[in-house]
Protein 1
Amino acid sequence: MGQTLTEKILDDHLVEGELETGEEIGIEIDQVLTQDTTGTMVWLQFEAMGLDEVQTEIAAQYCDHQTYQFDFKNTDDHRFLRSAAGKYGAYFSRPGNGICHNVHRENFAAPGKTLLGSDSHTPTPGGLGELAIGAGGIDVTVAMGGAPYYIEMPEVVNVRLEGELPEWATAKDVILELLRRLSVKGGVGKILEYTGPGVESLTAPERMTITNMGTELGATSSIFPTDEQTEDYLERLDRGDEYVELQPDDDAEYDDEIVVDLSDLEPLIAQPSMPDKVVPVSEVEGESVEQVIVGSCTNGGYEDILPVAKMLEGREVNKKTEAIVAPGSKQASEMLAREGWVAEMMAAGVNFSEATCGACIGIGHVPASDSVSLRTFNRNFEGRSGIEDDNVYLCSPEVAAAAAIEGEITDPRNLDDVEAPGVELPDEYDGSKTDLITPEEAVDDELVKGPNIGDVPLRDELGSDIAGEVHLKMEDNITTDHIIPATQDILMYRSNIEKLSEFTLSRVDDTFAERAKNADGGVLVAGENYGQGSSREHAAMCPMYLGIEAVLAQSFARIHRANLFNFGIVPLTIDEDTYEDIDQGDEVEIVDDVYEAVTSGQEEFTVRVGDEEYTATLDASERERDILAAGGKLAWTKEQAEGGSGAAPADD
Ligand code: MIC
Ligand code: SF4
């Protein structure tokens, strides 16, 4: 039987297990990336594990989320990261050089390689045929130490593209269409593999917009085959020699198929406040817009900003609207500046920003109260922009530019005298590389830690009893932005868990952290897709620090579920009736001897609430059970190392 492209790359990197859906596999990781807000923990854990050098072909540390350095704590984090990259042998990308996914795709992403990154949008280079997966920081640490990465073999879904995009429909509309059809949990446990005759019409950067935002579907990864478009893009990056042709076999079998006819697509928009609340732009036309932002790792490339510049050339941003362009990389800014487009945009009324994540997580350009903000980003979870009750819409750069011109949501097909800009790649990506420091150019060889950089929190070995209050009962689709928001006031404590934990779940209930800390243990209850969104392991670390021992949810998002194991919190699945019956404030007891049950492979646990008993399920591999029993991945990895098999390549 033929293989899918996903299977081919996995097979090439397989060190443990078999490629059977649902089975745990261990794969070798070629490249890792980390960024400033998850990276400090990555390196602190690297240090705590006693590792002394990165073992992957490429390890890259980017500084991208908080580049304005509003507080010395941010700058101290960056200085620590530079020192860690220098000491342990990673590339270091200076603050302002760009968003990790953009800089990585420009410099390192390559067909057929595997990439693990401590950021949920790591799958971006899937558009170049790289199998890229987002994970919690400690999983990246361990992979960087040379050990395999373990996941459940996902289903591989064939997304068959037919036809060609009509004028004004873009790659962003392809992924918005998938979100409209599948929802934010439609991709959980799946890798989306794009095939079909429509693929060849999409340039590599367009493909990367699609693979980037596959994360919003909850997908493990998204990948395109490679072809002339891939080779062409790599050649323009002066990396043509890294091209490898990769296609699925003709008789490959997929677990499912979705067909998207590109020629049926039209400009789409995700309404507040979930990326799957997608409708045609024409349905919400006329809504007044106070702010437009073009940028982010989804649409911050040179090829995304150029159409905006062309649409604004000789025109003006509407007087009631503020337009901000925040490129994904300094390379994009530099090239657009050299070609005169930055000046053109500035003359039209654009506020041109440094290359940063910034506004995407509410750092800068927070919308005014009661106003509409249109962004080319990938997430619009409520409050993420920095103000509660925000109205953030997600759309393509072309739709954003149309709104900037008209001051209201506008279907760009209805613009007078504005030509569809189309997609244009530069002859060569010739931005300078000054801000990417190679391991050979390292400036430090010792770690430099500022006063805000704390220790990695540890939990004791799993005990026999779990009993305590339900401190919070939450609805479906609780995001990691609810659990640990990433706005500036909170983000600056990412390296200081004691302080950061004070903000845990504050967006749901600001009395939670205090209550949990003062209680002796306790649990959380949630609906479907608990922990969707980012990879931040702090969303498990902080509840652990506050004493939370188990989360009872109807289902979990993939990365967050792994993070719960990694920090010794038992993730138990409950059915809808059980969810309905349990209330906040109830006393819950797990009747089984928890340590015994976890280590013996028991799947069903009895949960007692008052006089009632319910069943909760622990669906976990042997390895995950061992991690839980040890009190988390750091303790487990140290145990393994003492036993001789720690963060080192698997035996076989
Ligand atoms: C995000 O888009 O939510 C982030 C901020 O990039 C996170 C990483 C983080 O929380 O540091 C992600 O996507 O993993
Ligand atoms: Fe940065 Fe936003 Fe992309 Fe996350 S989604 S990496 S915050 S630009």
Protein 2
Amino acid sequence: MRKTSARAPIGVFDSGLGGLTVFRALSRRMPGESLVYFGDTAHVPYGSKSPQSVARYSVEIARFLAAKGIKLLVVACNTSSAVALPAIRRAVKIPVIGVIEPGSRAALAATRGGRIGIIGTEATVRSGAYPQVLRALGSRAKTASRACPLFVPLVEEGWWDGQVTEEIARRYAVPLRRARVDTLILGCTHYPYLKPVLARVMGPRVRLIDSAEETARRTQSALKEAGLLAPAGRRGRREFYASDAPERFKRLARRMLGPGVTRVRRHSFGS
Ligand code: DGL
């Protein structure tokens, strides 16, 4: 973390609105930190793309944010965290934090019966990243995974609740209920938008794990260890970028974060 200043912002990115769940957790935990968010709305959804494309987009964004002078990068996207973390780390010289390990730790702390369900994009589920990380953390929990490709478009469309969304969630939940999972990892940062629906569908005995909180905690301790926490008593700045349709992004981001989202700039990069 050489040459970086504690006043520098933290960079956060996702394919679209999903990473705002992590952005919100970071901003609540560390109101003094400045944050720069990038939503890759030109390429959403990442979940149905090849690992090569996801890595290419992720590296472009990481470089763009690094050029803005960020002190740390939070990859607030499970798909990128699952398939592109090594490429991102090679591309930028700042610390990079993904969401999969923090989410896995939170699930291990929450599970009572050792039956962990994982929902995520097709790419994340196919990568096997969660079961691998859980095992690497010494877990012997049984896992059941399910890709839920319709969830991201529903969230990007603003359909965060309602009958159609609930019916889709109910169908996706069938194998997870059958596997009698006691804990469910929301392995995509878009899914916390659907928490009320997912809680209804899974029932009160299943704990829903949203990695946002745990990721924010991890970010805070990484900055603390490096002596890079923002000076106390200041209020952080917020900056937003989208690779396409920034006005649309702004409208939905305000629904999530409130009227503080006053401006979203467009920044596009090669396809
Ligand atoms: N929110 C992202 C994730 O956590 C990406 C979803 C997508 O674009 O398919 O996986």
Protein 3
Amino acid sequence: MDNKLKILVVGSGGREHCLAWKIAQSPLVDKIYCAPGNGGTSLVAENIDIEASDVDSLLEFALKERIGLTVVGPEAPLVLGIVDKFNSKGLKVFGPDKELALLEGSKIFSKKIMEKFRIPTAAFEIFDDCRAAYEYVKSASMPIVIKADGLAAGKGVIIAASVDEAKQAIDLIMVKKKFGASGDRVIIEECLEGEEASMLVITDGKNILPLASSQDHKRVLDGDCGPNTGGMGAYSPAPIVNDIVYKRTIDKVFKPLIAGLNNEGRPYRGVLYAGLMIKDDEPLVLEFNVRFGDPETQAVLPKLNSDLAEVMLAVSEGRLQTTELDWDSRTCLCVVLASGGYPGSYDKGKEIKGLSAVKVLEDIYVFHAGTKQKTKNTNPDKEFITNGGRVLGVVSLAKSIKEAQNKVYSAVEIIHFENMHYRKDIGDKALITRDSD
Ligand code: AMP
Ligand code: GLY
């Protein structure tokens, strides 16, 4: 076919390896670049040495290479306005513009939109003055949640069990400026109970294509203990998102938001991620993200049979006509292998062993995050070393959660790098509650 597309994937995590891997399956696609990419993306794309937040250099590259579609992984370039800049030069990008990227970039913007379109979420107050915030928590019921307004690398949310803890959180964010200007304002909100899950939709501003539900595991240790991480594993679908919850999320969250924004003449284009707290089949929105989740993507995209590149192109052109995506009905489960010390400090450069043995296993995929090639070469038996906190995502597709768990953990046994650690209980929550098999 003529006019095949060149695609640029922006980012360097497991999510971006998975996106590039899925996009590479499309007959519409000729070549994929990844900026800056990782060891894994070098297997399906050409890595380009440009950082994800260097929007001007990305633009220069995309113009020079005549990129047909740019797919943005992380939130930072979206908040910096990569979509507006690329569009102004006639380049297509999958993602929301700078203003709507604030749905993730500013928790206050996001809450105000939720309030406006009556989207179910925790009750909240906004403060730009720490004394007023201290005063408020004195008479508030505990626990309570304190959130920095702006981006804080996933660390700007503190759940305070007492008035003292709440004051310390306000102090850390607003006075000590732990997250810089992101803490100029805070949200103080009601602490919700329930089980968390992620629901994502792809939209061109009018039409909505829901993705399979998923569940992340943010804490570093088994049993949801220890500090928060970027995500230690995920599975899809999430049994907590039953048919009722799924329908309520579409009807009460996504439809009013997407239609409301479109009616105001600011259509949201791209993928929209709702982090939900679910109790008694009622979903409440904890946060919106304006991008795919990591590691949720690694547990969702292997289930997708449809052509992702085609869907993304349609979104970027505002002509999403497909009404349904085609899904593999099996369960997909991803376990993240991390460097010793993560989410604290860790060493890099550890040799990764066992990847070629795992590659031949049926229905097992390995997505790289913090890896790089040991030596730059074109040898198909590339060797990799660790280069980040989250190193690999090992993924399996199977008929049940139990089977997916067994397959992933057998594959994990084959992989090794010094001081590797991972959670041994990814999938247990789904098993306890409602695995139907
Ligand atoms: P956020 O970045 O707003 O999603 O917050 C990060 C994490 O903090 C969430 O995944 C929840 O585990 C927790 N969290 C945020 N808001 C609340 C809330 N209102 N009630 C309980 N937990 C929350
Ligand atoms: N896994 C959580 C996120 O991508 O925000």
Protein 4
Amino acid sequence: MEKEPSIITIFGGGGDLTWRKLIPALYNLYLEQKLPPQFAVILVDGKAITEPQMLTHLQKGVSQFSAGKLNPSEWKTFSENIHYLKGDFKKPETYKKLNQTSKDLQKKWNQKAHTIFYMATPPSLFGVIPHYLQQEGMSQDLEYNRLVCEKPIGYDLETAKSLNQSLNSCFDESQVFRIDHYLGKETVQNILAFRFANPLFEPVWNRRYIDYITITVGEAVGVEERGGYYDHAGALRDMVQNHLMQLLCLVGMEPMLSFDANEIRNKKVDVLNAVREISPDKVHESAVRGQYYEGRINGKKVPGFRDEDGVAPDSQTDTFVALKFFIDNWRWQGVPFYMRTGKRMEKRASEISIHFRAVPHHSFPPEASLNWMPARLIISIQPVEGITLRFQAKYPGPEMHLRAADMIFNYQNEFHTRIPEAYETLLADILENNQTLFMRSDQIEASWKLLTPILEMWKKSPPHDFPNYPAGTWGPDAANNLLAQEGHSWPHPTDLDH
Ligand code: BG6
């Protein structure tokens, strides 16, 4: 069946996200014929530039960031569907013009179009834009009008609740697509496939066989050009509240009954509701914060956080977080889930490690098991994309010596196909009106509910030791102690190379 026409309006169309991610993703979808034959992209922004200037700028973005090669004739036909509408987000005239443009296009196509409103703007506008859309009558059609919201959704539980209320006063929840781009990553979606399309692992996916789980999302980059934003957010808000909590949900959730969007989202919310809340007096036992000072990454000297543009010289903002959670249900009782994320780590490496319990009885002679270690399943999210099962094998030779060996699944080697960018998948799903990979309001609030007490406690007792880790490392020592006190350890960073 031919796809119905769609008009994608991007508020903040002159911004970085549009340039780096959204237009390159739409261009790839166009090349792969995943856009409807009749589509338009309307970029709304206050920038005083002409449409041709905007298109030249976007073309440069596509040639720099798009996976599909920039082909001048394809770009020409694609870009004929892009329109620039200069306007103030806070003036009703902007929305009147937008409505008119949208009506004109639908008249030209002689068909009703799906209208998608994408807020790629600072969060201060998330409460404003939907109201103007509603006033202009562009939000009421449950099937045809959609709203897309980028993170951050709120600054804490209270602000997230009031933002959700405000969004839902203009658009029904079934029309709202809150983006967490991690959910668009193939390796993240594959967690569900791996767990629930194979009968092999699910029977051991519980407290009987699993000792602990670590989730690492390490970045080598600093705050890039976003020092101003980041200094007000910090790692807990920027990464944990959304991306890491999503990973926790996917690893911890119960099997879904069907692939229905709400069914999957219900199962994820169940996980968050079962996570034991960290009371204020326990924050220091379960949460570690860090901030980097200057150091070296790949032999190159990099500045400390406080020396980055837009960051206060005495900033107390966390650029690293490590946390310990427990999930209070039958499956996970007593199994610690540790997560850590940070800027300026030794390298970019994100992985989930399932650390299995030791064998109940050591039957091998002691000299056989000098290098013995419990089995581990490593789900590599990026830049390595795949899954590794690390187990004990007999090392060749006359004696019985055990050593770790790997069974490796690597996306590139296995499938020989291009792995789509997260934004391609997410935009295609929005066009298809499929909310599976998007965050529902209750999930956002459940996540903030767990993290807000930590933020409040941290605010009450500012760190005494910031900055406390050199760039190019895996964070402060306290992050290791968090695990060591339970006899656990983070997987050694070199392991992340497998
Ligand atoms: C964003 C954060 O959500 O995710 C950034 O705001 C971070 O600070 C980015 O760098 C990481 O995304 P990825 O896909 O590169 O892991």
